[in-house]
User: Which sequence fits this backbone?
């Protein structure tokens, strides 16, 4: 049984897609059409009751949550070295992943997915109004954390870089100028230059 990734364009599911390309393992893609709200269809609920992407179907079963999927894939292919064995480096990679999942992604969602938190039009507008400010503050912290080298772990490429890139692609649309964060901008450019990233991106335009 090969791996199957359920994904949608412009989403965080780009991260596991890139990792599958980086690893060079066989995989299938199943695209979910957000314009048709397919993520909330009954058929998709049978695949992921959370109504979100990504989902990775593996020989063990289905897995949700970007960080868990990245960890699983990277740990299943230790030869690639994308999730270091060293406990400190592994924790630093997780530190970035957890920050992206729990804080940055959630701040981004306040622009287009505010109805998760409120039905009140004024509250939705108020949430949207904070998005650029919140993400700018998040980027300042990430920028400071990139001080030891090009990658999140300094000179070592890891799954944290893939995750950071997928989230960084939202910045422009959220009103954040990545050029104001030179290390983050250099990270973005370096990611875009990777052949595996280009192969994945070609399907997301
Ligand atoms: N915590 C989840 C969040 C996944 C998530 O929110 N994905 C978004 C796309 S970026 C989604 O599927 N949204 C669909 C919706 O809210 O209807 C993860 O990190 O994988």
Assistant:
């Amino acid at each position: 049984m090969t791996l199957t990734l359920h994904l949608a364009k412009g989403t965080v599911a780009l991260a596991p897609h890139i990792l599958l390309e980086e690893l060079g393992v066989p995989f299938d893609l199943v695209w979910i059409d957000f314009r048709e709200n397919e993520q909330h269809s009954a058929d998709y609920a049978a695949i992921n009751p959370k109504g979100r992407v990504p989902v990775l179907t593996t020989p063990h079963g289905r897995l949700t949550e970007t960080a868990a999927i990245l960890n699983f894939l990277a740990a299943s292919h230790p030869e690639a070295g994308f999730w270091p064995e060293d406990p400190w480096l592994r924790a630093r990679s997780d530190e970035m992943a957890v920050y992206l999942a729990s804080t940055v992604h959630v701040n981004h969602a306040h622009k287009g997915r505010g109805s998760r938190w409120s039905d009140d039009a004024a509250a939705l507008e108020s949430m949207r109004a904070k998005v650029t400010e919140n993400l700018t503050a998040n980027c300042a912290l990430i920028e400071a954390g990139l001080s030891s080298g090009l990658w999140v772990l300094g000179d070592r490429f890891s799954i944290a870089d893939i995750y950071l890139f997928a989230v960084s692609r939202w910045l422009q649309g959220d009103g954040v100028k990545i050029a104001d964060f030179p290390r983050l901008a250099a990270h973005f450019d370096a990611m875009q230059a990777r052949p595996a990233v280009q192969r994945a991106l070609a399907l997301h335009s």
